[in-house]
Automatic annotation (TrEMBL):
The keyword Signal applies. PANTHER family: AMINO ACID ABC TRANSPORTER PERMEASE (PTHR30085), AMINO-ACID ABC TRANSPORTER-BINDING PROTEIN YHDW-RELATED (PTHR30085:SF7). GO terms for biological process: amino acid transport. Residues 34-263 form the Solute-binding protein family 3/N-terminal domain. CDD domains: PBP2_BztA. It comes from Achromobacter denitrificans. Transmembrane segments: none annotated. PROSITE patterns: SBP_BACTERIAL_3 (PS01039). This is Amino acid ABC transporter substrate-binding protein. It comes from the Bacteria. Belongs to the bacterial solute-binding protein 3 family. InterPro entries: Bact_solute-bind_prot3, SBP_3_CS, Solute-binding_3/MltF_N.
């Protein structure tokens, strides 16, 4: 009996200790009344600022989904454009609450920065784009080429690794901002530029004559892109993680922004849990049980967001590829809401 009491006391101590430490970022967000998100300085399909100051993109919509989860209101999100060099410092310092920007999740970033990746919302690979006038069909033909690249990125490291492993020399042209890289490439300051293939496709779509440019076939890396948060606040970590998951789960179960109200009548227990018909799925997150319903109603599921920003309905017209649901041969697999 005494042993059981000791175990119970230890368990209670553990729970109370966890509760005392959890929720710092979560509570700060609730207190200030908005979610502050750091996004890239301009990548079509992920985060683009229009002439009226409005933001669009897959990463922007994830930020708004977080605001809906926390406040039931997408307008309770604030977008801050942050360069690749500044992004981790901005998150570490508390300048932003989350980096939904297209950031590659790696072991080093999870273990040395005091930050942690939450999950993948876009699977990509690194490639290289050239002007067709170079008449090259492979990156292996770029001996001595000048290549524009962003500093402080895995992109910069992968580029050096790939060319070194293939015993090919090149001259890096380091440019901080993606929009500046595109301009430098367009005026011929560099023979090629490298980035995630989604970024290259986005950049090409905005050039004066997109048909003049080729994205070469080589994949320099795996690029699992996703949001990052500070370590030490499991409550906020879980809100971000499950916002990503519930948008994937909604797509899998066919719940969309247009039919979500009808889906409230579904007898499928999984759908009932997702939409808060079955109570309790919000409590452990510190959210209302309708948090997921609100996200789907306001933003839509992952497939809807992808289609608007990256898919055939967007200027980029990218195929789903690896970012299709696992049921359609992709890698996107939402965790169970139960």
């Amino acid at each position: 009996m005494k042993a059981l009491k000791l175990v119970a006391a230890g368990t209670a101590l553990f729970i109370s200790s966890w509760t005392a430490q959890a929720g710092v970022t979560f509570d700060n967000i609730k207190s200030k009344g908005f979610v502050q998100c750091g996004v890239s300085t301009g990548v079509a399909g992920f985060s683009v600022n229009d002439s009226k100051g409005g933001w669009t993109g897959l990463d922007v919509e994830l930020c708004r989904a977080l605001a809906v989860a926390m406040f039931g209101d997408a307008s309770k999100s604030k977008i801050m454009a942050i360069s690749a060099l500044q992004r981790f410092t901005a998150l570490q310092s508390g300048e932003v609450d989350v980096l939904p920007r297209n950031t590659t999740l790696t072991l080093t970033r999870d273990t040395t920065l005091g930050l942690i990746g939450v999950g993948v919302n876009y699977y990509d690979s690194q490639g290289i784009m050239v002007n067709k006038s170079l008449n090259v069909k492979s990156a292996k033909e770029l001996e001595g080429a000048t290549i524009c690249v962003q500093p402080g990125t895995t992109t910069e490291l992968n580029l050096a690794d790939w060319f070194r492993s293939n015993n090919i020399s090149f001259k890096p042209v380091v440019v901080d901002r993606m929009d500046e890289i595109i301009r430098a490439f367009a005026v011929g300051r560099c023979d090629a530029f490298t980035g995630d293939k989604s970024q290259l496709a986005a950049a090409r779509s905005g050039l004066e004559s997109p048909e003049k440019y080729d994205i070469l076939p080589e994949d320099f890396s795996k690029e699992p892109l996703g949001p990052m948060v500070r370590q030490g606040d499991e409550q906020w970590f879980n809100v971000v993680r499950w916002t990503v998951n519930v948008m994937l789960e909604a797509e899998e179960y066919g719940i969309t922004s247009k039919n979500v109200d009808d889906m409230l009548k579904s007898t499928n227990p999984n759908i009932q849990r997702i939409l808060g018909v079955t109570p309790g799925m919000g409590k452990n997150l510190g959210l209302d049980d309708k948090w997921a319903y609100n996200i789907i109603k306001t933003i839509g599921n992952y497939g809807e967001s992808f289609e608007r920003n990256l898919g055939p309905s967007s200027p980029l017209k990218l195929p789903r590829g690896l970012n299709a649901s696992y049921r359609d041969g992709g890698l996107m697999y939402g965790w169970p809401v139960r």
